[in-house]
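Example A, followed by Example B.
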Amino acid sequence: MNAHGFYKEFMRRICDTPELMKEYKNSSEYTKLIIPLINEIIKESRNDYKLEEHELEQQSCFGVQNEYFRIDACGWVSHFKSIESQAEKLGLKPHLWDLKIAVEHENDKSDWLDEVMKLIHVKCPTKVVIGYSDADDRENDLFKLAFVARCMKQVQAFREGWNEEYLVILGNAKIKEDITSYKQFGYRGYIYNWETEQFDTIKEC
């Protein structure tokens, strides 16, 4: 699953789950609901990856993990069957896996840049940060992302990961303490463009 695929499926599930809005203004309860939703997206993306037939038969060949290295959700592919016999002879458990996608969800509208920094240091083809921006200030999303892009380029690990995808999804945050200030999620997707070194807005799916 690439960044565009994740965004499309994320938006579909958000739109198909109206009960999420009931908890949207309650950060802790909403996180408890949205992380399982993200887990399901990752689980169902297993067929997007080229797995051997014997691996597809193994329930553990594609997994989802939460809070791994303090990352909210991860998707990975296991290749343990290819080394199982050799590992057994050496007295080792057959651990051989590739991390495919890492997702961070940050409720604090001012703190999702830290999640971007964290994922820069994770070797993974697709990295997703879901954050929030003031509902009445969404026109400044791209200015924030231009700043984020400049920050990213200052990190050595970022320069070494030129073939990795960075997707930022921003939703509506309440205006100060007015919990009635928004009535929709307002999620918008932005993907990093390695040629322009800026974030591009993903067109509506």
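Example B, a separate protein, is given below in the same form.
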Amino acid sequence: MIWVDYLIIAIIALSAVIGLARGLVREVISLGVWIAALAAAWLFYEPVAAQLTPWISTPSVRIGAAVLLLAVGVLIVGAILGYLLATLIDRTGLTGTDRLLGLIFGAARGTVLVALVVFLAALTPLTEDPWWGQSQLLDQFKLLAEWMLKQVPPDVTERIQAL
């Protein structure tokens, strides 16, 4: 095993430990809130930016402020909701089960994160470096990354490779 293998193990282990510490409910709510925040920012930034016109004259700054306001607003509401649900779980006595499932969720999240990094790295010249071929664990993630690559439209792949 080489350094990249140890890094892969560390990423998955750290994600699993975070999942164990927070529990499944907090982890799922956190993931859902981040997805909702990004979706809200993506879908509603234009009308919010239009409302900010009297205060911000530069269009790019106005759009950035709208995205930031939407994302932070959803994250705050989500944090409150997450706190309330986590308190409910703590009171029901399901803490052990919640944490065990959080560990599993965290390990799965770490695995997906590593696969995503391998997917993005496959679009760059990194795959030609000697360590890429020497790694024992990268081969396992290459299969998942190849599947992910097949799901991406060709024009998106071309734009990413052009970066």
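On Example B: The CA atoms of residues 39 and 71 lie 9 Å apart.
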